[in-house]
Each structure stands twice: as structure tokens, then as C-alpha cells.
Amino acid sequence: LVLSAGGTALVGRRLLRQTHGLGPAEMTRMYDHHDAVLHAVREGVLIVGGDGRLLLANDEARRLLDLPPGAEGRKVADLPLEADLAALLASPRPASDEVHQSAGRLLAVNKRPTAPYGGQAGSVVTLRDTTELRALSGRAEVARGRLRLLYDAGVRIGTTLDVTRTAQELADVAVPRFADSATVELAEEVPRGEEPAQTGTAAGTALRRTAVSGPPAHRPLTPVGDLIRFAPGSPQARCLRSGRAVLEADLSTARKWQTSDPERAGRVLAQGIRSLIAVPLRARGTVLGTVDFWRSRTGEPFGAEDVPFAEELAARAAVALDNARRYTREHTMAVTLQRSLLPRDLPAPSALQVAHRYLPARAGVGGQVA
Q1: DSSP structural state of residue 148
Q2: What is the pLDDT of residues 230-275, one digit of tens each?
Q3: Which has the least CB within 10 A, 15, 108, 258, 370?
Q4: What values do phi and psi take at 290, rounded to 5?
């Protein structure tokens, strides 16, 4: 009895040391609390033993890694994980916010050894899904790039009061930062400084290509200077009638365009052009023409989120184009008036042969007779 009592006391004292003086009720309460916390946290938690076996995985870790039932107790190398992630989990190497791919997600992985904190040899791993955060960061970077492009457009478009030069500046500023190629088509009256015909009519859908930008392989087939009569179902004709941008994310499925203008549609598709945004160039209530932004099959197609930017870029350029048109009109009128004020005949002395030429001023009113 004495030996039995002594042995029981020794065992009890050892158990108290190992349980840190906690009784059964306290241990049960602590286990329930830790288990609830482990499965309630929004980060995945793994415990990997020193032999490379998965000892514990909470619910979030199972979801993020798409672990099969019965994964606990198996070697990490035997689980259906990406090779680089499995190698990290099985190794003793610590990690801080390393990004690894698993089950279609981007996970930020942190790993620390458990031995220095009184535990057995092994490591604890936390997993955080950063897929949405990185997608938001990507969209924010795109937005910053668009703002920089709009700023550059304000600086680079409208540096002169020449209609053709301004149209070319618009096409150049969009390529390649927004489109693979860009074209500008204007009503024939605009370069002469005249008011364009009403859009939506036969005259309003016949535009002259004024500017093209982009590598030759991506440029639409119609060269600068040619008159283009857009078919009623084409994106350009539709945007002229509605006064709003028209998005064709996939030109191969644009049935209205292909039906109304099969020859031109076939040439464009054969060139490898995939996507289009056609935007009317409207300023002070007048539609001057269209600007077309094109993307090839090698890049991402345009989406609905690209339309507001295209409209903003076109709106800024349209004001510069209209300023150039109005200047051309006023300059033409001033030159005509100056010529009308010149004498029709010069004196003809008998001893001299007289020749004359009038050179109008390049700016303002005036000129020179030589």
C-alpha cells in the first residue's frame, strides 16, 4: 500500500507538471476554447511535424488547399499540393509572406518552427488568400495608368491649330498604352473649317480617314486619305447615330457588322484584329467624326470598363479638333478678305516690266506684296 500510494503520488505530480497544474475540467475548457479559435480564424493554420507529416489543419486551410478527407497524418509530399508549396511545408526553412499558388488561388504563406517555443519539432504555417487583394491592386495600377495617359493626352493633343496634325496626335497618344492601333475618321468638311453634315444621314456616315497609328501588322486596311462609307450596321455608323461609344469586344461575333459589310469585316478579321471601341468625336454639340481603338488577338479584348476612358479621351481630343476647325475657318475667311482688298491692277510704266505676288500672313491679319 505504501509503495502504491507513493507511486500514485509521483505519477500525479508528473501529470500536474505536464498539464501545468490544470485539472480535468480546466483542460477540457481550454481544449474547447483553443479548438473553437483554431477553426474560427479566417486564416488557414497547419501544423507539420518534424517528419514532414501533416498533424493539424483547420477548416480554412482545408478550403484554401482543397485538402482531401483524411489528410491529417499523411506526408505533406503525398498530398495534392503544388510542388513548390509542398517542398516549403516539408522543409525546416521559415518563410514570411511568400506567395504560392494552390487550387487556383494566390496564398501568402508564413511558416515558423515550433521547437523554440517549447513544442515538439515541427512547424506552424499560416495561409492567407491574397487573390482578391492582388486583383484590386492590379485594377488600381490600371486606373493610375489611365490617369497618367489622360494627363499626357492633355499635353500632347492640340499642340497646333491644324486639324490633321491634331487627329494624328490623338491616334498616337492611344497607341500602345490603350490600343494596338487607332484610327481617326473625320467628316470631309472638318479639315476645311466648315460645319460637318448632320450625322445619321448618308453624308454623315461617309468619313475620310485622317490619321492612323500603330504597327503595320495591326493597322486597319484603309489608308489615310481614303473616303470610307460605313455600312448602317457597322460600329462606326451606330456610334454616329447614337452619339455614344460602341463596344465590340469580339468582332468575330459582331453579326450586324458582318452582315451589313461582309467584305470589309472579312478583311479586318483576316488581319488579326479582335476587338474595337468606336467613339464619336463630339464638341459643342457637333459630331466631327469618329475615333476607333483596335486591339489584336494577341492582347486582352476591350471590356465595358474601357468604354468610359475611351469616351473621356475622345471628348478631350474633340475639343482640340473643333478649336483647330474653327481656327481654319477664321483663317480662311481672313485670307479671303485680305485678297479682296488688294488692288486688281498695278501701274504699268512703259519702261518697266512689273510682276507681283501676294503672300498672306501665317498668323493674324496682314500680308506682303512682292
Answers
A1: H
A2: 988 899 999 999 999 999 999 999 888 888 888 888 888 888 899 9
A3: 370
A4: -135, 155
Which residues neighbour 208 within 8 Å (Cβ) at sequence distance 6 or greater? 185, 186, 187, 188, 225, 226, 227, 228
Residues in CB range of 55: below 8 A, 6 or more apart: 47, 48, 49, 72, 73, 122
Please give the average per-residue pLDDT across 309-336, as a whole number: 90
Only one residue has cell 455614344, namely 244
pLDDT at 12 over 70: no
C-alpha cell at 33: 476554447
In angstroms, the CA 79 to CA 266 distance is 51
Helix axes 163-174, 307-340, angle to 10 degrees: 160
Instruction: Give Cα separations from 298 to 109, 179, 217 (angstroms).
Output: 34, 12, 12
DSSP per position, 83-110? HHHHHHHHSS--EEEEEEEETTEEEEEE
| Structure-block grid coordinates of residue 122 | 515541427
For residues 146 and 155, what is the distance between their CA atoms, to the nearest angstrom?
14
pLDDT digits (tens, 9 = 90+) for 49-80: 988 999 988 888 888 899 999 899 999 999 99
